[in-house]
Amino acid sequence: MTARNDALARPRAWRFANGEGRYVADLGTAGMLHAAFVRSTQAHADILSINCDAASRVPGVRLVLTGADYLPFSDAPPIIWDVAGQRRSGKRALAAGRVRHVGEAVAVVVADRIETAREAAALVTIAYAARPVVVSMEQALHPDAPLLYDDWPDNVVAQGHWEAGDVASAFAGAETIVKGSYISSRLIPLSLEGRAVIAAFEPSRDGVTVTTSTQAPHQVREAIASCLRVPEHAIRVVVPDVGGAFGLKSCAYGEEVLLAHLALRLRATVRWIERREEAFVGSVHGRDEQVDLELALARDGAILGLCAGILQDKGSEPYATSVGAAWAGAMLMSSLYRIPNIRIDARVVVTNKTPTGAYRGYGVPEVNFALERGLDEAARVLGMDPAEIRRRNFVPPKAMPYMAPQGLVLDSGRYADMLDLALAGFDWAGERQAAAQARAEGRKVGVGLSAYAEPTNMGPSKLCGMIGINAGGFDVANVRMEPSGHIVVFTGQTPMGQGVEASLARICAEELTVPVEDVTIVHGDTQSCAYTGYGSGGSRGTGVGGSSVMLAAGKVRQKLIRIAAHMLNRPADTLILSQGGVQVADDPGQRVPISAIARAAYHAHDLPDGVEPGIEERATFDPQSLAITYGVALVRLEVDPETGVVDVQRILFGHDCGRQISPALVEGQVVGGIAQGIGAALYEEFPYDADGRPLTTSMRDYELVQALDIPDIELVHLETPSPFFPNGAKGVGESGVIPTPAAIANALRDALGSDAPPDIFNRVPVRAERLIAPELLTRFSTNPEEPKE
Amino acid sequence: MTVTISCTVNGRQVVLETEPTSRLSDMLRDDLLLTGTNIGCEEGVCGACTVLVDGKSARSCLLLAAQCEGAAIETVEGLRDAGAPPTPAQAALHRHDAFQCGYCTSGFLMVIEEMMRANRVAPLAQAEVDDRLTSVLCRCTGYLPIRRAVRTLLDGDR
User: Fold this and answer.
1) ipTM higher than 0.95?
2) Cβ <8 Å between B94 and A10
3) Closest chain B residue to A192, measured at CA
4) Tens digit of each residue's pLDDT (9 = 90 or more) over A435-449
5) Of these four, A18, A180, A540, A755, which has the most CB atoms within 10 Å of its CB?
6) InterPro entries in the record, alphabetically (chain B) (predicted)?
7) Measured distance CA(A195)–CA(A246) in Å, rounded
8) 3-state secondary structure of A636
9) What is d(CA A413, CA A737) in angstroms, rounded to the nearest whole number?
10) Does B77 contact A19 at a Cβ distance shorter than 8 Å?
11) Interchain contact B137–A (C-beta under 8 A)
12) Nearest Cα to Cα of residue A628 among A770, A712, A697, A729
């Protein structure tokens, strides 16, 4: 991989290089109180009684609160993705009457010291009456399944159906039909910084300031306001540095609401820092989805029809994200391909496990895994090169914008060009031949690829409304020029390591022709920053947030020119902004620097008629469409037949995210995403036992990729601007995780060929123990420990 | 009950009373307000809280403060004096975009500092460098920029 450090990716991020990031746990005030939670040890049980007496008597304990105590103070939290017929849990931050997963919060203890709070929390005793447990989707859907919610007729949160064309005829006329069930196992987003909240009572406005590690400060404010029935202006949400998020922190949590309640109730500052053991069961999980796919193909590899059943495990409640990932997956089911006849059914069910929420990729890696594994099997059956079957079905540029039958709009892209670029860079033909040669010599070497589409620039407010998202998709920016000429941008977008602040600064600096050092981005504060409906998620920071910054900066430019016209005594239409000053277009000697214009604007001694003093502009951007980033991942790997260990030797990743505002940041997002994709493909899994107890309770049990697991990664890219965005930029935050699991599984299939049943490649992670050669496995056959399928 | 601990932290003598169960990470963050050492897992796996104890990298979440009696402790705050330019390691991590959220960065900086000292005595082989880097987990960068930064740093340091 070659570094593209034409300029520092994050010119203003020295604090991190110095170890000077300031996260929630680094903040706090003397005299603040500390909260510790009592969490359920049961997967599914009625709470018979809770005894808080001993805990309450511990010196230093200020309050012990149970779910029943809290119920009158809090309404149910809002649901972000809310589709017709969807069922609700009504669950608050603390369980009342019944617990539905191990780790569900049951009570909270507030004390003057954290040690005291934890000690007292351990003294809370709860009597449970166990109920039968539902741990799998299969169990959840069984006609005799125990119900998680007594007022629901079954365990289904919602179901959706999309159909277009004539699917039955397509399948009847097919040369080949390929079928498979493709499983993306439950995993956890795992940000290194867990969640953390400080809620401080604010006497001046009889409200609360909530400092929290989140991707969506305005959403957190709305959740607190609606749950606690407190007006929004009384709540200020502040987000300091965020130590990773990956979707985990994209929606409000019950704890944020509860901490605000505690601060208001005790008229104090209360802090809660999630511990890792809590994070495993208390923060949302990801994936846990099965896609049953059938493809109907013609002899030449053309996809005639597609039937898909998407089944997603939501864990114990719909949570704020609800059915979103499954619905997003349905939209993206056809990916980059022209598939005229489509039928998709999606069902989302509840089980007695931690709720799944948003995790990088949000439903798209799951359907990509199914479709790209399925296409590989189809190529195998038809005797085609796996690259060619993709090429044959790509939507061509001349057909764009292209609307897929289920509603996805492909805005722009050169899919075949991208494939050619990547195949050439990888030497696909040569690598395939070399792998075949190695296999002939008895080694288990394979190559595989996967193409992908990433829906980015989450927006159109109208589209959000149509698909059931309870938020707008617009973004607002305020750009203020200070009297010195320095520029301050106020944004609702939230940095979490992705570097969105650096991109926004670059966009603004470019628009106003100043060095990027002259722009400061203010973020993470609902009191000073503009409202944004959807926060930083759906890969929208640069495309949607950046477009609003660009528009607001454009208004600043207009004002600068108008004032400069007066100062230079020249018509405005003869002037241009260039290199930090306004000058006469054909006479650069007549020029006034931005700093002088700014000073004049704030002195207001001599402004043109109708021009307000000061320079502060606001702009809103609401996109017309999503922007579809796309690309292809190619992988070479080798399996050690004795240990099953997979050595991923080479990855080439081709991607097109439109115009790249900050190439180094794009690279960082892609490579970081690939690393998580490798983890999802080979290692990361969060299993439960039959009683609903998590089998991963410490970081030692959860296998993250380490420095040595990442091969050299080669990146190639195209830049095809999106026609729907003024800066042409598409998002990129989720690219790496989408195709990597399928590309690795396809390479494993290539490496092991018919030595292994194809089904083992249809479920990620494909862990080493499943790849040990069958003849070696028989050595252990006296104690077969086959993983549950 | 408290215990009295006497040690040096970033070259300065420290004497403080702390609980016998207090971890080194608690002492650094809560008693000395050195919050640059971040806590990721409290079980010695993630490496974010790595500091140097008598010159050797150690997980500050796995050491009791009381075990550090008489020790010389170095944290990320001690790598450079206030107002001094960034160290070569800090500059290299920044130049190579080797951090995103920054939560693991302090841990990497301390491991890198230890490696640079060792490298001056006897150059470290690539395998040794990679092996040492696996002691800290990063969820954002995919490690490649960190490895690249460290390699150029050690090569340039010889």
Assistant:
1) yes
2) yes
3) B40
4) 999 999 999 999 999
5) A540
6) 2Fe-2S-bd, 2Fe-2S-bd_dom_sf, 2Fe-2S_ferredoxin-like_sf, 2Fe-2S_ferredoxin-type, 2Fe2S_fd_BS, Beta-grasp_dom_sf, Diverse_Oxidoreductases
7) 12
8) strand
9) 20
10) yes
11) yes
12) A729
